[in-house]
Write a structure and sequence with these properties.
Helix content: 25-40%
Low-confidence stretches: 159-168
Length: about 170
Amino acid sequence: MLRTVNRYSNQLALDSEFYELLVSSHARFVREPLADFGSGPHWLYEVAPFAVVAHNAEPDPRFVYANVTAQRVFGYSREELIALPSRLSAKIENREERRCLLDAVSRNGSYVGYHGSRVKKSGDVSSMEDGVIWQLIDEHGYCYGQAAMFSKWTNVHRSITPSRQPAT
């Protein structure tokens, strides 16, 4: 079932069970639909005008899902992005703040109104706005990780630290 998220993340792009986890968890914790009724995994992955990413529940989580909009925003291919530890999407000096935010999401189920900066593959920094972060928890209470959606982003400046550089 979905417990294979960690091993088969390259197959989640159009997976209907993973799509259901994304949208049902979003509806439960955010109390709003992520997608219109009947939209389906193809729409969310290939057509949605907003970015959606998800990371797994490992101690150092890595991305397991990134829709086409998120791939464009971050400048990575799907294969590159889903192999990336999600902490590397934040500048080194912002990683503790990011960790505290994700811990709060773990406790509260979601965070609405996120804004912050994220590092792209090129090293550019983008400002993210209108973001939502939520827990990915199925109907049995099993946690698969967390997801984020953001609908606005702008390039801010060139980062000195490349996004793939490990934390020090």
